[in-house]
């Protein structure tokens, strides 16, 4: 059962879907889900929500502000990725779920993938309403990703471009944009690799757009730094062994080591985008499903006063 939904995020309307197991009544545990860098909910989230729902979990799936079906804050451009806006919107989605009569407010999980995998860990670290979290192929360090993906001789030009864009926007000019992917790896793009182009280009002509604002690429977001603060919330990290896009497995495992128990690390074969298809999907979705069932299946009973 899938229901179209919308909810308020302090003046911005976010839109998505609510999944509910068929033939089930009462208050259900619920998993909050949104997608990664520039993605919309149609880019591979349905199979995860269906797998979770088949196991008895409700799901809230939504587009990040400024992307897909969701609105943008007044005065802000579309296609702009601000991690802190996205983190706060996760929290608004939790509030929306908790207000539904068919959701148990004490059994909320958070799931994210790629960029939103890092966001999910931050949300779990700062919001104790989260009772379990899963981040798959998660972004953990913006700086390391930039330094690994951009040749050092181009770093200053990138920073100069960002500074010029800020001055232009202060003058009222339109924000500078940059492609997310490109067929020509010699051209500027956020992810100029063949596997990124193969994944994203399949969605040309949908709600996804192959551009983000240049400001979306600025340094300063280190989601992995929050992993040590997630406990006592149970943490699952799903790592792709051959990820060369966002977080190489070595970086992810280093970040995982900073987290306290309870936690679990699951490795899946393939690269960053393989998590969404075939056997890696069966592994990634199954691990997340089992994690949420383990930690959300039992209703929380308040201690006696």
Characterise this structure:
With 305 residues, the chain is α/β, with parallel strands linked by helices. The protein has one domain: Rossmann fold, CATH 3.40.50. 32% of the residues lie in helices and 20% in strands. The chain has helices at residues 45-54, 83-99, 115-126, 142-149, 155-170, 194-201, 249-257, 278-296, and strands spanning 2-8, 13-19, 28-34, 58-62, 103-113, 130-136, 177-178, 212-213, 235-240, 263-268. The strands form two sheets. The chain has an eight-stranded mixed beta sheet, with helices on both faces. Helix 1 (45-54) packs across helix 8 (278-296) and helix 2 packs across helix 3. The longest helix is centred in the last third of the chain and has 19 residues, at 278-296. The protein is globular. The N and C termini lie far apart (38 Å).
* Rounded mean pLDDT score: 95
Low-confidence regions: none
CATH top level? Answer: Alpha Beta
CATH architecture: 3-Layer(aba) Sandwich
Number of individual domains: 1
Report how far the terminal alpha carbons are from each other: 38 Å
| CATH topology description | Rossmann fold
Series of H and E elements: EEEHEHEHEHHEHEEHEH
């Amino acid at each position: 059962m899938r229901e179209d939904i919308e909810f308020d995020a302090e003046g911005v309307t976010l839109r998505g879907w609510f999944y509910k197991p068929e033939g089930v009544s009462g208050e259900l545990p619920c998993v909050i889900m949104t997608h990664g860098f520039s993605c919309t909910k149609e880019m591979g989230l349905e199979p995860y929500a269906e797998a979770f729902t088949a196991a008895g979990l409700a799901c809230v799936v939504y587009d990040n502000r400024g992307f897909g079906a969701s609105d943008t804050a007044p005065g802000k451009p579309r296609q702009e990725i601000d991690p802190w806006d996205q983190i706060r919107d996760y929290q608004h989605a939790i509030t929306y779920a908790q207000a539904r009569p068919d959701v148990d407010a004490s059994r909320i999980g958070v799931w994210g993938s790629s960029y939103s995998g890092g966001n999910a860990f931050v949300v779990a670290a700062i919001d104790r309403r989260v009772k379990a979290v899963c981040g798959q192929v998660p972004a953990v360090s913006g700086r390391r990703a930039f330094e690994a993906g951009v040749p050092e001789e181009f770093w200053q030009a990138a920073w100069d471009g960002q500074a010029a864009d800020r001055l232009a926007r202060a003058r009222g000019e339109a924000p500078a944009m940059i492609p997310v992917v490109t067929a020509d790896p010699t051209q500027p793009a956020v992810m100029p690799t063949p596997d990124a182009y193969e994944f994203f280009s399949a969605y040309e002509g949908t709600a996804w757009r192959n551009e983000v604002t240049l400001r979306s690429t600025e340094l300063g977001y280190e989601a992995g730094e929050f992993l040590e603060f997630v406990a006592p919330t149970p943490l699952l990290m799903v790592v792709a062994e051959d990820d060369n896009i966002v977080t190489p497995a070595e970086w992810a495992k280093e970040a995982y080591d900073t987290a306290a128990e309870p936690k679990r690390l699951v490795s899946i074969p393939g690269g960053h985008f393989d998590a969404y298809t075939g056997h890696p999907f069966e592994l990634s979705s199954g691990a997340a499903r089992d994690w949420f069932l383990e930690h959300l299946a039992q209703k929380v009973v308040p201690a006696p006063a």
